[in-house]
Specification:
The protein has 323 residues and is an alpha/beta fold. The chain has helices at residues 13-22, 24-28, 46-54, 66-70, 72-87, 127-144, 153-160, 186-214, 303-319, and strands spanning 3-7, 33-35, 59-64, 92-97, 218-226, 229-236, 239-248, 257-261, 272-278, 283-287. The protein has a six-stranded antiparallel sheet, covered by helices on one side. It has a four-stranded parallel sheet with strand order 2-1-3-4, sandwiched between helices.
Length: 323
């Protein structure tokens, strides 16, 4: 069956784990086998084990982020070898864009990246949907891999080549279920909350500008009040048609990120509130569902998902929707 190699930075190990979970159905069906460097056993030669797989596996997933590009081993060794095999038709390389970075000018920049349009996974409102698109791409690639009873040329050549030293003994079958729960401190959660607030502020500022550029008669105005609060106003022909305030914390709403209709410097009211939560793998945001009558309450939101939810409240009057 086709074999899949993960080329990734250890800084992205949590995202790699989430992707491997999404590939579980393909593994259960016998569509693929997967391998990454965490499968290397004690006493094995790390570089030899990686070289064996990067030189023989059928599908190579490049898990792209700024850390991946900054890693000399990932970029100069694994990626370069992967691209050589891709161009020779020995393997299929799929760039998986995990986090926003300048990847279009890389050697793999002309390949069709996933998720759709190369939009980074961490910027999708629903991260599971983004990983599902990757899983579908892997399934499609596996279907294109031609397998024969005899070893493929790359494996045959590798088998025929004299070894410089005896290969380490295989440790035998091993479970792929080696993921351990992660824990997040309050410091981690607070940092994620502040980073998310800054992301939402940039998101609103850019969206207000683009809204005015695309629609004659509309003007969006962003005003930063302080480090923990900003105002967003939309004018139509000079008349204000939507106003909103986004602020951190507050006397009543605790540690969340809050949205309130209108412009206010008070911190004791809210029309929607987002809170930081964590599961055993990642940090995410949840909505109290006040603006949607509970409809959005059970979603695990990324930073972009949180920003989109609050933006939808602000722009609802112009779109004729109810929030």
């Amino acid at each position: 069956m086709p074999t899949v190699f993960f080329s990734y930075s250890h800084a992205d190990e949590g995202l790699r784990d989430q992707l491997e979970k999404q590939l579980s159905m393909l593994k259960r069906q016998g569509v693929i086998e997967t391998w990454h460097d965490r499968r290397i056993g004690a006493g094995e030669d790390i570089h030899r084990a990686i070289d064996d797989h990067i030189n023989t596996d059928d599908i190579i997933l490049l898990l792209v982020s700024a850390d991946f590009i900054a890693s000399d081993y990932c970029y100069d060794i694994e990626m370069q070898r992967a691209m050589e095999r891709h161009h020779s038709g020995e393997a299929i390389v799929i760039p998986v864009i995990l986090r926003a970075c300048d990847w279009h000018h890389a050697p793999f920049g002309k390949l069709n990246a996933v998720p759709r349009d190369g939009k980074p996974i961490t910027q999708w409102p629903d991260i599971d949907e983004a990983f599902l698109q990757v899983a579908k791409a892997v399934r499609e690639a596996a279907g294109r891999v031609t397998r024969t009873v005899s070893a493929p040329p790359a494996r045959a050549a590798a088998a025929a080549a004299p070894a410089a030293s005896p290969a380490p003994q295989s440790l035998g079958p091993r479970s792929s279920n080696l993921r351990l729960a992660k824990s997040f401190t309050q410091r981690d959660k607070d940092q994620f909350k502040h980073d998310t607030f800054e992301y939402i502020a940039r998101f609103f500022e850019n969206s207000l500008k683009e809204l005015g550029e695309r629609n004659a008669g509309l003007e969006g105005v962003f005003r930063r009040v302080d480090a923990n609060r900003f105002f967003a106003t939309i004018y139509r022909d000079g008349k204000d048609v939507a106003r909103g305030t986004v602020y951190l914390g507050g006397e009543t709403w605790g540690r969340g990120i809050n949205y309130v209709h209108g412009e206010t410097t008070s911190s004791n009211s809210s029309n929607e509130s987002l809170n930081v939560e964590a599961d055993d793998q990642t940090l995410y945001l949840t909505s109290m569902g006040m603006a949607s009558f509970g409809r959005d309450r059970d979603q695990k939101l990324s930073q972009e998902g949180a920003a989109e939810l609050l933006w939808a409240i602000l722009i609802a009057p112009l779109q004729g929707t109810r929030y």
